[in-house]
Structure formats: C-alpha cells, structure tokens
# Entry
Amino acid sequence: MHSGSLSFPRIRKILALHRKCIGFFHFHTCFCGSKFGFVSKKLSFEPTGRFYELPFVYIRFNEYSSSYSESKSSVKFVERDNFGDRNSDYDKFGDMGVQDAGELSLFSDPKGGRQKNLHPDFGDFDEVDEEEGEKRGDCSDDDDDFMVLDSCKEPRVQKEDVWRVELGEDEFRHPLVREVCRLIQLKSAWNPTLESDLRHLLRSLKPRHVCAVLLSQVDERVALEFFYWADRQWRYRHNWIVYYVMLEILSKTKLCQGAKRVLRLMTRRGIWCRPEAFGYLMVSYSRAGKLRDAMKVLTLMQKAGIELNLSVCNTAIHVLLMANKLEKALRFFERMQIVGITPNVVTYNCLIKGYCKMNQIEDALLLIAEMPSKNCLPDKVSYHTIMSFLCKENKVKEVRDIIDKMEKDSKLLPDHVTYYTLIHMLSKHGHADEALEFLREAEGKGFQIDKVGYSSIVYSYCKQGKMDEAKSIVNEMLSKGCNPDVVTYTAVVDGFCRIRKLDQAKKMLQQMHKHGCKPNTITYTALLTGICRNGNSLEAREMITACEEEWWTPNAISYSVVMHGLRREGKLSEACNVVREMISKGFFPTSVEINLLIQAQCQEGKMDEAKKFMEECLNKGCAVNAVNFTTLIHGYCKKDDLDAALSLLDDMYLSNKHPDAVTYTTVIDALGKNGRIDEATDFTMKMLKKGLLPTPVTYRTVIHRYCQMGRVEDLLKLLEKMLLRQKCKTVYNQVIEKLCTFGKLEEADKLLARILKTASRTDANTCNMLMESYLSKEMPLSAYRVACRMFNRNLIPDLKLCEKASQQLMSEGKSVEADNLMIRLVERGCLSPQC
# Structure
C-alpha cells in the first residue's frame, strides 16, 4: 500500500492515533521515496526520501506532532555536531518546531499559527538604524539592569555550555564555497542570470559551507546581506548553526541592529536560542556604544524563560568593562555570587583586566590573592594580564615582582608563553633593551626563542633608528641557526631607508639572497620608498622596469611610491608613464593620486597634457571624480581660458560626473574676475536650482566680485536667494568689510543697520573697520556717528579709533562731538575721568 491509494478521510483517521501516525508517516516517506522513486510533473520525491507528494498532509502531521510533543512538555534539541547534509525547505519542520509550520499551515491564524508563542519579544528595544552614528547616553549607576539576577534564587551548579562552530580548511576551499564567494563579489553587476546561478548553488550547500561563505566575507555587511537574501529564497532555510555563526560575526562589529534582527529571525523560525546567542547580541551592542541596550538583553532572556549561565554573566561583565564601568561590573560580580552563579577564572581575569585598564594594579593583585579563598585558582593569564599593562610603562622591576609572586603564591613557573608576552609587549611599546634582557633570561633558563621573538626586538630597534643594534640581532640569529625570515629582513631594510643609509639597505638585500631568503614585494617597496625619499626616483623607476629579472612583482603601492617620487621631483611625464604602466598591469590609481598629478601639471601650465592624462584615466576605468574635473577647470581659469573651462564643465555632465558647489564657485570666480558678472549670476542661480548649497567660499567669492564692480543692489538680491538655501550669519559683515576695502563707504554705511540687529563681537569688528575707513579719508563726523550707533547697541568701539576720531573732530572745530565721544567712553568704563 502506498500513499497514492489513500484518500484524505483515511489519512485523517490514521492521524487520529499518534503512534500509527508516526509509523504511517515514516513508512510512506521512506517506502515511496526510496522503493518506487515515483516522479511526475505534479509529484516529486527528493533522493533523501522526503515526503513531497502531499504537503498538506505533511503540514497537518507536523502540527499534530508538535502539539502532542508540547503536551508532553518535551523539547528536542539537535546535537551540536549533527548539522545535516542539506538545507532543504522541508528540513525546517523537523529541526525548527511548529512555528514555521504555522506560517505555512492553511489552518493557522494570520499572526503566525495556533501554538502559543514561547519565544522572546524584541519589542522593548528601540529601532535604531545601523547607519546612525550618534551614541545614546550611558546607563546610570543604579542596579536596575541586575534585577534579572533576582529570579535566580536557588544556588545551582553551573554547567559550561559554550557552543562554537569549528570549520576546517576543507570547507573554505570547497569549490561551491569559492564559486558562491565569487558571485557575491560581483553583486554590483548582478543580473537575473547571476542571481539564478547563486540561487541554484545555494540549495547545494551544506550548512558548514554556508558558514564558510559567511566567514569568508571581508565586509560583515556583505555577509549580512547574503544571509538575508538566502533566507528569502524558496525551498531553502538556514540551518541553526548558520544563525549562530552569523551572530558571532556580527558580535565583532557595531551592527547591533543586524544582530538583533537575526536573533528575532531565529525565534520566528522556532530555533531554540541558547544563552550564547544573547551574549553575541550584548557584545555587538557594547561595540556600538549602546551599553543600556546591551544590559537590557539580560531582561530579554528572563522574559524568554532562559536562565542566565556563567557564560552570559561573563559577557555582561566584559561589556561593562568595555564601557569603563568598573564599579558596576563589580556590583554585578557580587550579585551573581549571591544568586548562586559561581565565577570561574575567566570572570576573575575579566575583572583583572578591568582593574589594569583603570591603572589600578594594586587592586588587581588583591583580586588575585582573593581567588584561592573562592575555590578558584589564578592561571597564568591572570598574571600575564597584569604584566602586559606594566610593560606599557616599562616597569620592569614590578614585572619581576609579579613573576616571583606567581611562582611563590600560585606555584606557576614562567614558561615560554610568559617570556613571549613580555618580549612582545616591551618591543611593541619601544622598550627594546628591556625586551632583550628578558630574551637573554629566557635562553638562560633553557627556553628556545624562535624568530618571532627576535623579529619583534629587531622591529622595535628599527623603529627607534638603532640600526646597529638591529643588525647585530640579525647576525646573532644567523649564528644560532635561527634564520631570519622575510619580515625581519624587511624591517631592517626599511629601517636603513628611513635614516637614508641606502647602501646598507642594499647590502641587507644581498644578505637575504645569500642566506636563501627571497625578498618579497613589501621588501622591494620599502627600498623603493627610501630611494625616492633620497631624490633618486629615476633609479626607482629602473627597479620597477627590471622587476621581472629580479623575480618579484610590484603591486599598486610600489607603483604609487615611484609615481609620487617622480611627481615631487617635477618629472611629470615619467610619473604619468608610471601610471599608464600601472593601469596596464591591472592596478588602478586612486582619485587622490590622479588629482595630485593633474594639479602638478596645472601648476606648470601644461593644461593640454593634464586634460589628456585625465581622459586616459577615465577611459581606462579609473576612479575619476568631480574633484579631478574641478582641479582641471581651476587650471584653465587661472590661465584665463574660460571657454576651455566651460567646455570641460559640459564634459562633466557627459561623463556622468556631476559638478559640486566647489566647481561652480571656481567658474563663478573666474567669470567675475573677467568682468562677466551676468554670466556669473546665471551660474549661481543654476547652482541653486540644482540643489547645491553655497559654501562660505561661494559667499566670499560672490561678495568680492560684486563689490569690486560696485553692483551692490544686484548683490543683495542674489544674497537673499542664496540665504534661502544656506544660512550665513556673517554675510552682511563680509559685504560691509569688502565695500570698505574698495572704498565704497556710502554703500557700506547703508548696510550697517542689517548687522547691528545682533550686536555681536563680529559686528563690533565690522563697525571698527568702517570707522577706520572713514578716519583714513578724514571723515571724523561719519566715524563719530558709527561710534554712537555702536554705543546705542551696547557695543564698545575701539579706544584708539575713538581717540583718533576725537583729535580729528577737535581739529575741525567740532569739540562738542569730541567731548561727547570721550564722555561715552568714560561712562562705559573704558576711560578714566582724569584722562
């Protein structure tokens, strides 16, 4: 008997009994799928034996089975290594519970099924955009965030339930994984064909392969987009390990809203959320600076019915310490012990690091001394944490005291990890001599230090410019049979180049070849940088040309170093040739590098060469932008070739490079300089119509050119239109000052009322400038009137200007005004009555 001979009433009778239902279901999924292999246009079976013939019956069975299981209060978990071999759409019914079945069931309600929702509610969190850069205020110092610990009343034995997915190289090198990653990189040029190919590959990926695809993405946002896209595909549903891997990826970023959505998606899919999932969300919130939301995750766990475990408590303490909330972390530490969550060595190490971060080394040592009484012995990480912070300040004596304390109190002998930590931290912070002492001590105790330890000391010496010491360390490595690697040699070559000893750098390069260490691209690039700094860019150019003979391949940085060296030496044609060769090799210069070359050519008046170079870069697909066009337009404007500049402005639109406010300002200034003020006005209005906001430079340019030509009325009309788009508080101050510069004092005096409305310090400076202009033309009465207007607005004119105005008024026989001006200064306390 097979499913094709059963009617719906008979199937429903079988479903009435739970055991018969399971037997019937297993029989027909396996028997029909494997024995008969029945395939038709309407009915199909997968090779895995999935029951695809009657999806309605399948859904009803899932609802019935889930409700039966719920009545027995039994929860089925997937083993941590049982990830399955497929991501079939119907796999979700077995692994994810009834929540998704409710979404597909014909009998479910519109809100998602007949079953009671036992999953957490995320509605308590405010929706914040991932792009939002503002940080909300930190949480207060109260203990409201710890109330969730009060629900844990009975002490209990803590179980370590830390879950992680370990992927091997085979998953990352799998052909399907590599092909999917390649298609994801082409997302900017996606079309229906590429998306169809990616959709087809997605259904063939195992869960581990999907995890490998997510972990292979350099940009976490791209990984999150792929995760969302895959989840929307038909006949595919993420395995539960994929969610945890995605959360782990997001925990290393500030994409807290993405992590929250992934966690919400898990609840909708009916996937049981382990405490570690909430821990990932907490860390992501903390990285985004949202400490309050990170701590609210604990309340969210309580509402979900998930008890806190030691792992989440350690995460909470870590989050508080990342936000420099040491006192609050200590209160949380005390509260978790009260409710019976016993801290382990990881908990104590977090607090030790927090103490060290706040430079409270003594408190960290007291905490280590307290650990044995709490049945938790400190490990070497506890001591290494304190040593690392002491090494930053070069406190070698204190470090040795810690080592003695570690041996005496905890019976922990320093091993090679201890010495590696000390050598690395001291070298990193520029204390190479002290690091060398510990290296000698480690070798004296029989520890063999490899090239990594030596290289860190060599790098530190090179960074300080102590090349003799660095070279002696390299020779010592050779004598001990510890051959330096390419990283060590490259550090020495770069160090010699920094102090302009190129001969020594080249000898070190020969020594590399002699001892069988092949220089790489970074080594040659360091040498090229030193040669260019020494003013021998043509020699560096020859090295690039002869790179094939030396068996090394220059990269984009190598070409950029040589190009910038030639540009600084004024060899622009050779620099452009380097860029052309760079493009031919598949390396594209940045828009900044292109702009530097264009600017250098424009400064030498080589406008045609600059334009030709930019057009070549544009045709080759380089990142030419509006700034490059603006630089070239500015060069034409400086040569008074306005026709070429305006033609280039039109070419910007043809190349889909839209001009910005700086471009228009450049053209407006050039037109005003040549007396074509009406055309400048047209371009200003055109800029405003395009929605471009005038910059402060735009205001200064327009004001200067209009005031120069004395067209004040036209200027004021244009400024009113510009102010509607972009406010500028000092615009009328600039107009008055510019009119004073050009000697148009009458027009400037008419605008004085516009600036005296605010009566700021800037307005006082403008009035003083107008007074000085009047006095320079021997018009003291006008200067006196400006001073009186300033007094009426509670502004104090400049004392020296008032004295000068008083003298000119006295010389013209206007003693009343002169005395009144002095009396005003005495009343304001700026002048004593005796004077």
Q: What stands out?
A: The mean pLDDT is 80. Residues 18-36 form the longest helix (19 residues). Residues 3-104 form one domain. The CA atoms of residues 102 and 113 lie 4 Å apart.
